[in-house]
Amino acid sequence: MSFRNDFLWGGATAANQLEGAWTADGRGPSIADVITGGTAQRSRTLTYVGPDGKPGHLEFFGDLHEPPQGSTFAPIEGEWYPNHDGIDFYHTYRKDIALMAEMGFKALRLSVSWSRIFPTGMEEEPCEAGLAFYDGVFDCLREHGIEPVVTISHYETPLALVNEWNGWTDRRTIDCFVRYATTLFERYRGKVRYWMTFNEINVMNTNAWLGAGLASSDPKVTMRAAHHMLVASSRAVKVGHEIDPQNQIGCMLTFSQGMVYPYSCRPEDVHKAWELANRCYFFSDVQARGYYPSYQLKRYEREGIDIGMTEQDERDLREGCVDYIGFSYYRSTTVSTDPTTPLVDPDSPMKEILGVKNPYLTVSDWGWTIDPVGLRNALDNLYDRYQKPLFIVENGLGAVDMLKEGHTVDDDYRIDFLRSHIEAMKDAVEIDGVDLMGYLWWGPIDLISASTGEMKKRYGFIYVDRNDDNTGSLKRFRKKSFGWYKKVIASNGEDLA
User: Fold this and answer.
1) CA dist., res. 453 & res. 323, Å (int)
2) CA 404, CA 185: separation in Å to the nearest integer?
3) Which of 46, 121, 226, 228 meets the CB 3.0–4.6 Å disulfide criterion with 158?
């Protein structure tokens, strides 16, 4: 048998993409609540109110820049904010979890909304209603025999921290985060054993708003904020182990930025691929090893970046190393030093992130390369580098699904994607000796896309009747992949027919 007996099969979600109820029970706004909807061709925007009281917009992708001095990030009337409603998981979680239990889930990854617990992030005492909500969710999961895998911060820095302090650029945010994490560790001791500090922390390289609520692309700003996040993560890991030595606390990367191919065997292309991959590895190097790698320190020296490292920071990083490496994998990236090399999707707002076209790979409806062998390569590279258990905490295919008569979806394309990626995982475990903890499919139930804000971009085994114009009954229906994944879990990954 390829996978260990306690292998954690399941799915992964995020509070800001499915909960809705964005002002319920004292919740404060987060950075997700000022991002408008978009499409595959039209970027989402960030909204703010300028010092003159007039609304303004910033492009969500590309060269982010701060709004006029004196502006406040806020929702503005007449705009569509899909995260405000999500799929109403806040009120439907018992039925949704029951459907996942029907598939045989061993684990469900979800995140806690920081501003449900500390509405501004700066309070000394938490909001009891927010804590009680997650008590209900975790108890429900336990009743169904499903392990909660909890991300402490998943693209949801409280908006007040951004408007008051510019968020993670201010060292005071470290203490706010550690207070929040400590509250979770204490409240849910015995209910939650698997944790991750920050979702896809290396997204700071490409979209610092998602990572830290920063409307900036300047590395002198984003890398100082990233340092504060790394210190906060290490301090949280240390506290989490002190509160409950049984806690398993990991980091989390988006490894689509780490699985990088050179377009050609030109030495310059190979070096560019190495350089881009290290922009990803840097974060896990610090979190897994406890110190800054030399290549990153030389970059800071070369570019005049001052992260404000202190002796206490160095101690915190050494003493707060993670127990496992969690990562998302959707696609690989190909890079070229030749500016004439065609891009994967030149019309996408994410065109620079998606990279150049790999002639050996197909792409999804949204221009994301489909590369199951890349998942094996990712597993091999990460395990060879760290020799720590690995956990695939996101993998999925966003596609246009058509609901048929009888309320089902024939999503064989999703089954094919799953099968090929699970086969790649098996090769990494059986042939290459990788220690793999589990596999969590992104979006087991349709939810809001983080990149485009669409419902049209569907990932789930469970169809949610909701459209991009906010119409739909919100009823849930099983897709064809629902039964197929159920069979995979029951066989511990052996039955892939």
Assistant:
1) 32
2) 44
3) 121
Q: Which long-range contacts (CB under 8 A, 24 or more apart) does 52-58 make?
A: 58/215
- Cα separation, 211 vs 362, in Å, equals 29
pLDDT of 63 over the 80 cut: no
- Per-residue pLDDT for 284 more than 80? yes
Tokens 């989402």: give the residue: 44
Average pLDDT over residues 449-477: 96
pLDDT digits (tens, 9 = 90+) for 422-458: 999 999 999 999 999 999 999 999 999 999 999 999 9
42-46 long-range contacts, CB within 8 A, separation 24+: 42/349, 43/349, 44/349, 44/451, 44/452, 44/453, 46/73, 46/209, 46/215
Residue-wise pLDDT for 323-350, tens only, equals 999 999 999 999 999 999 999 999 888 9
Which domains are delineated in the chain? 8-20+82-490 (3.20.20.80)
Percent of the chain with pLDDT over 70: 100
Query: For residues 26 and 43, what is the distance between their CA atoms, to the nearest angstrom?
Result: 30
Is-contact 248 195, C-beta < 8 A?
yes
The DSSP secondary-structure symbol of 28 reads P
Which listed residue (19, 147, 394, 454) is catalytic? 394
In the numeric block, which tokens belong to residue 374?
Answer: 């890349």
Is pTM beyond 0.85? Reply is: yes
Residues linked to residue 150 through DSSP beta bridges, in sequence order: 110, 195
Per-residue pLDDT band at 1 (split at 50, 70, 90): low
Which residue spans within 255-318 are E strands per DSSP?
260-262
In 3D space, the residue among 430, 436, 439, 437 whose CA is nearest the CA of residue 488 turns out to be 439
- 436-442/390-394 β-pairing: parallel
**Rounded Cα gap, residues 300 and 223, in angstroms:** 9
Distance CA 493, CA 489 (A): 6
Q: Environment class of residue 488 by beta-carbon count within 10 Å: exposed (0-12), middle (13-18) or buried (19+)? A: buried
* Residue of 19, 200, 268, 275 marked active site: 200
Q: Are 73 and 35 in contact (CB under 8 A)?
A: no
- Active site (annotated) includes residue 352: no
List, as one string, the DSSP characters of 187-251. Answer: HTBTTB-EEEEETTGGGGGT-HHHHHS-----HHHHHHHHHHHHHHHHHHHHHHHHH-TT-EEEE
